[in-house]
Design brief:
The complex is a heterodimer of chains A (304) and B (461).
Chain A lengths: L3 H23 L13 E8 L11 E9 L2 E9 L6 E7 L28 E5 L6 E7 L10 E6 L8 E2 L10 E3 L20 E6 L19 E5 L2 E2 L4 E6 L3 E8 L3 E5 L4 E5 L4 E7 L4 E7 L4 E9 L1
Parallel strand pairs in A: 11-14, 13-19
Antiparallel strand pairs in A: 1-2, 1-8, 1-10, 2-3, 3-6, 4-5, 4-7, 4-9, 7-10, 11-12, 14-17, 15-16, 15-18, 18-19
Chain B lengths: L5 H5 L2 E2 L5 H20 L13 E2 L2 H8 L1 H24 L8 H10 L2 H9 L3 H4 L1 H17 L15 H17 L8 H22 L1 H7 L2 H10 L4 E4 L2 E4 L15 H17 L5 H13 L4 H32 L7 H7 L5 H23 L2 H4 L24 H30 L3 H27 L4
Antiparallel strand pairs in B: 2-4, 3-4
The chains are: A mainly beta (304), B mainly alpha (461).
Chain lengths: 304, 461
């Protein structure tokens, strides 16, 4: 017969066991990707510290709307000079960068610096110093790449004026409104000085490094290798066994990219991009590395 | 920052962390099984005697006879020599050189795994013992008398082996982290240094004496061999009740330190990419901030955490021992400490299986294909026509690995409880007190098993 002490033990064991079970299951679903992709991201324009004189009262809103069919960006700004031409650009990073917004967003990185490869919004302010603009694209800006919008005076010189804040905690999108029609050359850093920028509106902010790359349907993750190092640290890519493992590697120098375990190698030329696409047959965690340098660039997690 | 455990240097594949649902199931099963173990314990010791049965004169003559001893010893010496030669002369690539996989996978993991089933397999193949015995026989033939040996300090017991065990794993996973220092040449040189040290100690204290107490590999592999079913008694091959030989293992001082070192080092290696990763990185960065170089900082922080693991595992064991001391009729602390050390051997084995089982299965494919055909890894030899083969990672699914990992921890847990219960029956004639003492060992075992599960669930996170 079971005495009271033993009964207490049983109860204790069961309580602890169920506590374990509860703890265990609570964090099962935390890694879901960021859900609703047709949702809009919003941000408010704020004048930049380095803005040209007279722009300290700039305010406004920016919205980036994704739908299956493409992207719509709209801005409404006040506190500008009356009857002046302005231009705003979508940037990839947040407003808090040393160079607010970082580089311009481009659908094809390193491609044309004009729409439709970039998103620009041009407008002329009214007599009250207010203005609105909208731009649409048939392509969807990937989640996490719309860091902010930066505003400039469109007079041929570059001035960025204000930035907006969004409430969205995802990776970063920003539209910058620049003055002037020339943009950064190549995909490198913007050439204009800070003082050219009037305002910046933060949308998705700056992507935090080393995060799991969210893999939305139809999006192929790209690992950018610069100076023999993966930008943002070793990239973690997750796949499910039976699917296709797909990712791209862009490198500024020629290298051989080797996926261990699967033992698949491809050469990437300097400045080029290659794509891996193979069935996820082997479960476990495998490294992808720069074979010549012996530097790991990605970790492929193949879940059953 | 290169911050990679052993598996990276050799296999470039790691296990996925055990998923939350399996972690929960594992922990629940452990607790429920533990409860039943307490309720359903037997009342007379079952493992305290060997229950050994001789295997027949012919088998003993063939397997334990001098020709077989010479043959096995020669194989051991040859393989050690091959590993050192490959390390010195072969490729620098860790995964292509026979030396590293042979020493750190085939031997370091293979002997514990198989000895735990079959009994001590290392003793006949121990190359240093073979050399020592030949040297002893040569000395006797020339001098006409047996070599005189210093008497081994009894108090020292197995402490040299425990410290040696920490040193071997330190070399492997701290000094050699990320392949820095874990290259075939370094390991070959370390092997030669260890060989010189071992032969010197054998000359001083005697071959068998040193193998029993100080020789790291004899002590470590022999510990797991005590779980196995075959052994030798008075020159006869015997089949004994499983686990029964373990009950007499810990009577040599310092044995508890050996088994604690084993659990601690496996925990450290299992946790350095998971549970302890952030803490190790913080310490490393702090050390770097003091102006210490990256490699040195990594090694210092690794050393600190390995020693912390050793202290932590030892502390949990000592808490259980102190708890048992409070039960009426308990023997002295010293006796309890020695008396229950062997109950941790199954836990140590379970940790090894859980952390290295898949690594062993995959890497042995390399051992028996390209590393055997091309030991130097230079691409110039193909002895058995298998130099071009690779490792097939599809033979184990992630699910299979998870079940083995969690299953081994649960089985190790149950075996540990069984041995502890058995020993308690010897120490406490009163069955109630014996059972009461086992609440403490139950707590110790639950702690180790759940910690093991936790390490797996956050591994490589």
């Amino acid at each position: 017969m079971m005495d009271a002490k033993k009964l207490t033990m049983v109860l204790l064991v069961l309580v602890v066991a169920s506590a374990f079970a509860a703890c265990g299951s609570s964090d099962e679903n935390t890694n879901e990707t960021n859900g609703d992709e047709s949702a809009a991201v919003n941000g408010g324009f704020e004048p930049l510290a380095d803005a040209p004189p007279g722009y300290s009262k700039v305010a406004g809103e920016a919205e980036l709307q994704r739908s299956g069919a493409g992207t719509t960006v709209s801005i409404a700004i006040s506190g500008l000079e009356p009857k002046t031409a302005y231009i705003a650009h979508l940037h990839t990073s947040g407003c808090d960068q040393a160079d607010p917004g970082g580089p311009h967003f481009q659908f094809q990185k390193g491609g044309s610096e004009e729409p439709p490869n970039e998103i620009h919004l041009k407008f002329t302010s009214d007599a009250n110093g207010e203005g609105e603009a909208e731009a649409t694209s048939g392509r969807e800006v990937p989640v996490g790449e719309a860091g902010s919008i930066v505003l400039h005076v469109d007079d041929g010189s570059h001035h960025e004026m204000a930035a907006y804040e969004t409430g969205e905690a995802e990776a970063g999108t920003a539209l910058f409104v620049h003055e002037g029609q020339h943009h950064d050359e190549g995909s490198g850093e913007p050439k204009h000085a800070h003082s050219d920028k009037i305002a910046c509106a933060e949308l998705e902010g700056t992507p935090t490094g080393n995060q799991e790359t969210p893999i939305a349907s139809g999006e192929v993750p790209t690992i950018v290798v610069r100076n023999g190092e993966p930008v943002g640290g070793i990239q973690e890519l997750e796949f499910t066994a039976g699917e296709e493992v797909r990712f791209r590697v862009t490198s500024d120098q020629a290298e051989e990219i080797h996926v261990h375990g699967y033992d698949i190698s491809q050469d990437v030329p300097a400045g080029g991009t290659i794509e891996f696409d193979f069935p996820a047959e082997l479960e476990g965690i495998y490294e992808a590395e720069l074979e010549e340098l012996g530097v790991q660039i990605a970790e492929l997690r193949i879940n059953p | 920052m290169n911050f990679l455990p052993l598996a990276h240097a050799l296999a470039s594949r790691q296990d996925l962390p055990v998923p939350a649902w399996l972690f929960a199931w594992g922990a629940s099963i452990v607790l429920i099984v533990s409860f039943f173990a307490l309720a359903a314990g037997w009342r007379t010791p079952r493992f305290e005697q060997l229950h050994a049965r001789p295997l027949g004169a012919a088998a003993s003559r063939v397997l334990l006879g001098l020709p077989m001893q010479v043959l096995c010893g020669a194989i051991g010496v040859f393989l050690l020599g091959l590993a050192v030669y490959a390390g010195l002369e072969g490729t620098e690539a860790p995964d292509r050189n026979f030396a590293l996989t042979f020493l750190f996978v085939t031997c370091w993991l293979g002997f514990p795994f198989f000895s735990a089933i079959f009994g001590d397999l290392f003793r006949p193949f121990n190359p240093w013992r073979a050399i020592g015995r030949v040297a002893g026989a040569g000395f006797q033939a020339i001098a006409g008398q047996r070599a005189a040996h210093a008497s081994y300090p009894e108090k020292l017991g197995r402490w040299p082996a425990a410290i040696g065990l920490l040193a071997v794993v330190w070399l492997e996973v701290v000094y050699g982290k990320g392949g820095v220092g874990f290259d075939p040449q370094t390991i070959a040189v370390a092997t030669l240094i260890y060989s010189g040290y071992t032969l010197a100690m054998m000359a001083v204290f005697g071959v068998e004496e040193w193998c029993e107490r100080g020789e790291v590999f004899s002590v470590y592999f022999g510990m797991f061999g005590r779980l196995g079913i075959f052994g030798s008694e008075d020159g006869k091959l015997v089949r004994r009740r499983p686990f029964s030989a373990a009950t007499t293992w810990a009577t040599v001082p310092g044995s508890a330190a050996v088994v604690i070192a084993s659990i601690a080092t496996t925990s450290f290696d299992g946790g350095q990419e998971g549970a302890f990763k952030d803490a190790i990185e913080s310490l490393t960065e702090w050390l770097e901030g003091l102006g210490i170089g990256l490699t040195a900082s990594l090694r210092i922080s690794g050393t600190v955490f390995m020693l912390l693991c050793f202290a932590g595992v030892g502390l949990i064991y000592m808490l259980g021992i102190r708890g048992m001391r409070t039960v009426p009729g308990a023997p002295s602390l010293a006796k309890l400490r020695v008396g229950f050390a062997h109950t941790l051997i199954p836990i140590a084995l379970a940790y090894l299986v859980a952390h290295y089982f898949s690594f062993f299965v995959f890497q042995e494919q390399a051992q028996f294909t390209f590393l055997l055909s091309d030991p130097l890894g230079t691409g110039t030899t193909d002895l058995f026509g298998t130099a071009g083969s690779g490792v097939d990672y599809s033979i184990l699914s992630a699910n299979a690995i998870w079940y083995v990992q969690v299953g081994s921890l649960i089985v190790g847990h149950v075996l540990g409880l069984m041995l502890a219960h058995d020993r308690a029956l010897v120490y406490w004639p009163d069955y109630r007190n014996a059972t009461a003492s086992q609440y403490w060992m139950l707590a110790v075992m639950v702690a180790f098993t759940c910690f093991g599960l936790y390490l797996l669930s956050v591994a490589n996170g």
